[in-house]
Automatic annotation (TrEMBL):
Species for this entry: Mycetocola miduiensis
Alphabetized UniProt keyword annotations: Pyridoxal phosphate, Transferase
Signal peptide bounds: none
Enzyme class (EC, first level): transferase
The name this protein goes by in its record: Cysteine desulfurase
Family matches, as Pfam families: Aminotran_5
Domain called Aminotransferase class V: residue spans: 40-421
């Protein structure tokens, strides 16, 4: 890696293509050809590649410390538990939280369901007086947005169906930005929960978190932040943002699959009823009833994701050594280059803000006359990996009048040459399929 751990990122110079080429040596999956071409991986919005240090961290655990955590008094168990809890400390520090505010999940989707089902349990009397603020009844409202990933929509649909609450949404403008005048109208005394994505996985729009939090808290509503597309790519301080809950996934930020994070303010997590129950999350158990531990253990029933958590900490160490502000600036540059290049191609429509508007390092497009899956296969033939489909955001695609799109998403290991290869490939799509006008 070009920078040592602990680099003061505020003083570090911006990333360059030469820096990125050095970083890329750390990623074995990028050292290959696809269909006779050097791999250009522009699908990190779906899942990221993993550096050697992350692979080594997980392998080392299995080779040297493998044991059940929080169980047993032998040396391996103690070592495993220490590594596991140290990983929690690393994640907490990375997002501006305390250790008892970080809950391990399998992914962000599980974290969102954990909140939703916990609120559902509270609404049928579980959790007692401490859980009263989570209770939903008929007349209460849950507010989300038109731009959400299905993971931040379907659980709230289910919660509304179980409790009688009404699910409402903030609409988006033609460029994918939230209609904030509608948000102000929709957030009322009936609103009990406001949940939204930090960064759109389709448009790259960066939502105004502080303003939405202020509006929600003014009426006593809880705020849930989907940070899946922000935690891997930008400095994230959840305490400073003042959100009540947040979720993100490890596999999008250099870590393995099967590990995610739920953040919650400590007093809220301690009051929220659990929805997964069993071993390791209890104080006492009788044949008739059980008592539950405080957070985070109350939400971590059963055998945990030990190696994955340790590897996530290694991924965070890697990202921190490069510098999250440097990564954000680099990806902003790559995202602008993608949008500028795609927008200049006849018959290619970029979904979301026009060129020149600040966004994350991704761009989704609709190619006139060519289905997104055909676009993706054409690019794959050139060794360019992109995402195709509705990206688990059907309502947003419907808002744009399309059923699917092709998304290119950059990360710290992508160069300007990668972006230019995608632009050149996209420019050749319509001619290849014979749909040029």
């Amino acid at each position: 890696m070009p920078l040592p751990a602990g680099t003061t990122t505020e003083l570090a110079r911006p990333l360059t293509d030469d820096d990125v080429l050095l970083l890329r040596r750390d990623f074995p999956a990028l050292q290959q050809q696809v269909n006779g071409h050097e791999l250009v991986y522009l699908d990190s919005g779906a899942t990221s590649q993993k550096p050697i240090s992350v692979l080594d961290a997980e392998r080392s655990f299995y080779e040297r410390e493998n044991s059940a955590v929080h169980r047993g008094a032998h040396t391996l168990a103690a070592n495993a538990t220490e590594l596991f809890e140290n990983a929690r400390t690393t994640v907490a520090r990375f997002v501006g939280a305390r250790e008892n505010e970080i809950v391990w999940t399998s992914n962000a989707t599980e974290g969102l369901n954990l909140i939703a089902y916990g609120m559902s349990n509270a609404s049928v009397g579980r959790g007692g007086a401490d859980a009263a603020r989570f209770v939903l009844t008929e007349g209460d409202e849950i507010l989300t947005t038109e731009g959400e990933h299905h993971a931040n929509l379907v659980p709230w649909q289910e919660l509304a169906a179980r409790t009688g609450a009404t699910l409402r949404h903030i609409p988006v403008d033609d460029d994918g930005t939230l209609r904030m005048e509608e948000a102000e109208r929709l957030i009322t005394d009936r609103t009990k929960l406001v949940t939204f994505t930090h960064v759109s996985n389709v448009t790259g729009v960066i939502n105004p978190v502080e303003e939405l939090v202020r509006m929600a808290h003014a009426v006593g509503a809880l705020v849930v932040l989907d940070a899946c597309q922000s935690a891997p790519h930008r400095v994230l301080d959840l305490a400073a943002l003042d959100v009540d809950f947040a979720v993100f996934s490890g596999h999008k930020m250099l870590a393995p699959t099967g590990i995610g994070v739920l953040y919650g303010r400590a007093e809220l997590l301690d009051a929220l009823p659990p929805f997964l129950t069993g071993g390791s999350m209890i104080t006492t158990v009788t044949l008739e009833a059980s008592g539950y531990l405080p957070a985070p253990q109350r939400f971590e029933a059963g055998t945990q994701k030990v190696s994955q958590a340790i590897a996530l900490a290694a991924a965070i160490d890697y990202l921190s050594a490069v510098g999250m502000d440097r990564i954000e600036r680099w990806e902003t540059e790559l995202g602008a280059r993608l949008v500028d290049g795609f927008s200049a191609i006849p018959g290619v429509r970029v979904l979301g803000p026009a060129a020149g508007v600040h966004r994350a390092g991704l761009a989704s497009v609709d190619v006139e006359g060519v289905h997104a899956h055909d676009v993706g296969q054409f690019l794959d033939d050139r060794g360019i990996a992109v995402r195709v489909g509705h990206h688990c955001a059907q309502p947003l695609h419907r808002r744009f009048g399309v059923t699917a799109s092709t998304r290119a998403s950059a990360y710290l290991y992508n160069t300007t040459a990668d972006v230019d290869a995608a632009i050149d490939g996209m420019a050749a799509v319509r001619e290849f399929f014979g749909v040029t006008s």
